[in-house]
Design a protein that fits this description.
Length: about 400
Amino acid sequence: MDGKFSLLLWDAQGNEICHNSSVRSKPDLLCDDVDDILFDYEKMASKVKEISGSEVKAMKQISVHHYTVIDAITEDSRHFMIRVAEVDEASDLNIVQDNLRRECEVMKWISFSTALPIPHLHYYAVDEPYPYMITSKCDSILLADNFGRFPFEAKITNIRSYAQIAIELFRMNAPEGIGSLFSFECATDSQSHSMILGPSVMDDDPPTVVPSITEYFKWLLKTKRSSSKIGTAEEDVKEARSALNRLERLVLDWISGYDTAILRWIPSHEDFGAHNVLVDASGLITAVLDWEFHMVQPAVLGVSYPSWIRYDGCYDPQFIDPHNAAFEVWFTTRADAAKLREIYDEITQEMDPDYYRALKKGEFCRAAKEWLHPDLDDPGCRRLSAWMDSL
């Protein structure tokens, strides 16, 4: 074991959950006997050598989940991160390859257009049986493991740095439509570029680029109405239809009041959670990771409070699925989260009034989008109805 860390979270009743974990040493693919490694890691090590000009002396397997993540360490002590896409019998290799390629395209776009703290992309290989990318390593601590124990001032520093990132994304010029980036090309003079938008990479999103927020919600509502998650009993279906009709009227009413400044197309990181954020000891965000799940969408949908200080909509403990209540956790108390959201409002209103307007005026529609996810289990849409009743 390399050490221990203590994770502090809160449950739906507001009780502290203190979880002590051990940090175990990571297996080295070059010298340890590691089972179930199907991809050619030696070929990847050779590519790191080609990039760095130095032999790879260790390949530490950091994690295995949606991707296998490897810390490749060279003889001159530099670190390169290799992310290898998971491919199994249930995978559609074409989709896996396309998603990794499009993640790399959006990373190139962001690096070209902004100074956002994302890993530097050195290389990617899409047309492989196990697609992978090689990036720089960002040396910091994971926000998810530390936010709960941060002093309040560090939490303010954290949300201030989040605001700077969010506003820089808000100010980017994006292609028109709701979808995900398909390609990014930079001219040889590095002064101009072109982008093509493709369908969203998000599961259960429309299979084509959607031209407007109204059409997008029509699609979400249609999909939700046909989902088995609203129930199959006659009473459940009847209640769900009534709730969804009510939600549709409210959504369309909100959309009718939006202006062009807050409907502008912007990129968004759709997995901008504490598990994909690195910070320093002061709380400052030093890197935002894992851009696979990204979208271009209207600003009212693309902006958001930091997810780790949210207690609204589907994140509100009073509206969570009671069957999953024991597994739901929050990164700070409800009271501190409310204070931090107020501070975030003050910060963003001063930094960019249009961003702030999109943040506030889009609250209902962003929550509605989450409630309309077809995999959200809500028989009769009763939790959705309770949420609407509470507004």
